[in-house]
Write a structure and sequence with these properties.
Layout: E1 9-10, H1 13-23, E2 32-37, E3 42-46, H2 59-67, E4 71-75, H3 81-88, E5 92-97, H4 100-108, E6 113-115, E7 128-133, H5 147-156, E8 158-169, H6 176-187, E9 194-201, E10 204-205, E11 209-212, H7 216-223, E12 228-236, E13 239-246
Helix pairs in contact: 1-4
Bound molecules: S-adenosylmethionine.
S-adenosylmethionine binds next to strand 5.
GO molecular function, one term: methyltransferase activity
Protein name: SAM-dependent methyltransferase
Organism: Nocardiopsis metallicus
């Protein structure tokens, strides 16, 4: 009989990773986030970083937490590390995430979290004064083609003058496997830091999705035609916090 291999089952692999990490006490090495890029590149990162306590958040994250005000929407809250830090300061924050497992873990940690996405938010969450796109979640802009709609959808939930606080990472680097992938993107008319990837956990995989690494100049260009205005940027090596305001 001929031997056949199986493809992973499509499901909430990211949520499963957070659940495993939380069930194991979120101790270092408790669970690994496995990601697969569409050129076969596999990477593993300690999932405990999604559980960073408030006083150990990076300088850029702490700055974002300090700037957030009014009704705050933590877009792609994950296990809710930023939302928890805000709640501890008495701020009004709601976590939003399309991963049922992530929402479950965030709620178990005491975060007010709702299932939904930028494109499909739950009813009645606006108007929002501050959007958080932290943990590199400027990546949710996806790429040149999708970004205008993502920025418009966020603006449609916002109060006039709302803030958007997002962290991102400049994809420039010297690793040859990454630079080859970026060259392949350019050749296909994609932004160099556009990554088509999926998360794996056991026999589960998420659907393939685009996540965007972009430098501040590329971000400024994407923001240009949108309702958002560039306010300021805080840089720390290749990482940065962009502060945008609804025009
Ligand atoms: C890199 S993780 C960051 C999690 C969290 N912000 C943190 O820093 O700990 C990305 C998160 O965004 C969520 N996400 C993915 N697509 C989304 C969308 N369209 N709208 C809102 N959240 C999304 C994922 O489920 C995941 O929890």
């Amino acid at each position: 009989m001929e031997y056949t291999t199986s493809e992973p089952r499509i499901g909430d692999a990211f949520g499963r990773t957070l659940q495993r990490c939380w069930a194991a006490g979120a101790a270092p090495g408790a669970a690994w986030e496995i990601t697969e890029r569409d050129d076969g590149y596999i990477s593993a990162a300690d999932a405990t970083r999604y559980f960073t306590p408030a006083d150990e958040l990076s300088e850029l994250d702490q700055r974002a937490v300090a700037l957030a005000q009014g009704r705050i929407l933590d877009v792609g809250t994950g296990a809710g590390r930023h939302a928890l830090a805000l709640q501890q300061q008495g701020k009004d924050v709601l976590g939003l995430d399309p991963s049922p497992g992530a929402v479950e873990v965030a709620r178990q940690r005491g975060v007010a979290a709702e299932l939904g996405s930028i494109a499909h938010p739950p009813e009645g969450i606006g108007p929002v004064d501050t959007f958080l796109l932290l943990g590199n979640n400027l990546g949710l802009l996806q790429g040149e083609r999708a970004a205008p709609e993502v920025l418009r959808q966020l603006a449609s939930l916002a109060r006039p003058g709302a803030l958007l606080l997002g962290t991102g990472m400049d994809p420039a680097g010297s690793d040859t496997e990454h630079t080859a992938y970026q060259d392949r993107n350019r050749a296909r008319g994609r932004m160099p830091g556009q990554i088509r990837m999926r998360v794996r956990a056991g026999t589960l995989a998420t659907e393939w999705f685009d996540y965007l690494l972009l430098d501040p100049h590329e971000l400024e260009r994407l923001i240009g035609p949108s309702p958002w205005r560039w306010e300021t940027i805080h840089e720390q090596g290749p990482k940065y916090l962009a502060v945008l305001r609804l025009g």
